[in-house]
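Hypothesis: this fold can be encoded by more than one sequence.
Test: take the structure tokens below, design a sequence, compare later.
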């Protein structure tokens, strides 16, 4: 199956409100061009250097999503062009994104990463840390970022019940933020980014509005 056919198949299988991010890390510019020619505009990358290089060589209409772990000292390289940063896992990082966005006269859209998977090594806020962040008064001063929602990664397991339990926790958290009337203006919870090639059906079932798909579009890495 071609890249175009795989994208069309996934689009056909998901509800219209779910946004598809094509995760192109380690994949060539020509494969990205093929997806772009199929109407795919949103691409996800994990590594700063690779993201910068691809941004420079590929069509400017592409919306680049930084989905990997991001170190504060690297934000400056992607701030001039990045559309959305999915893996925001500390106030320090959010402050740096705001600073670099301001330097570039831009607003950068961010998602807060939530940690619910069992793996110790995964990044992100615990649910109670998130609640503390949302009432932190310094958030209102960040004029160059908008927090558009939450992002999570499920455990790397075949146990669908466990994956669904994790996704449901994040979805419940997302719903509680959406109904909060006292959010600062720069928190606009509209996006729940969860689901990858092996678990996107479960993610959508649990309320995902944005899926990040690599392998199922571009093949294994
Ligand atoms: C690589 C990656 C994906 C895509 O994974 P696939 O299993 O190839 O679909 C999604 N999200 C994040 C954060 C990733 O690092």
């Amino acid at each position: 199956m071609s890249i175009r056919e795989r994208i069309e198949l996934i689009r056909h299988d998901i509800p219209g409100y779910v946004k598809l991010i094509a995760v192109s890390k380690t994949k060539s510019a020509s494969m990205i061009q093929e997806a772009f020619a199929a109407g795919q505009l949103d691409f996800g990358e994990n590594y700063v250097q690779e993201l910068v290089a691809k941004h420079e060589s590929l069509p400017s209409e592409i919306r680049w999503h930084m989905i990997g772990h991001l170190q504060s000292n690297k934000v400056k390289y992607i701030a001039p062009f990045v559309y959305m940063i999915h893996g925001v896992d500390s106030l320090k990082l959010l402050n740096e994104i705001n600073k670099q966005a301001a330097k570039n006269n831009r607003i950068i859209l961010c998602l807060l990463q939530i940690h619910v998977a069992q793996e110790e090594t995964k990044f992100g806020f615990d649910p109670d840390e998130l609640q503390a962040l949302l009432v932190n008064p310094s958030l209102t001063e960040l004029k160059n970022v908008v927090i558009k929602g939450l992002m999570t990664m499920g455990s790397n397991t075949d146990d669908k019940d466990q994956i669904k339990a994790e996704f449901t926790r994040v979805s419940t958290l997302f719903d509680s933020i959406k109904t909060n009337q006292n959010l600062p203006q720069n928190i606009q919870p509209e996006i729940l980014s969860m689901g990858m090639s092996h678990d996107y059906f479960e993610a959508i079932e649990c309320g995902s509005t944005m899926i990040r798909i690599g392998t199922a579009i571009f093949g294994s890495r």
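The first strand starts at residue 19 and ends at 23. Residues 36 and 62 are 8 Å apart (CA to CA).
Hypothesis status: open.
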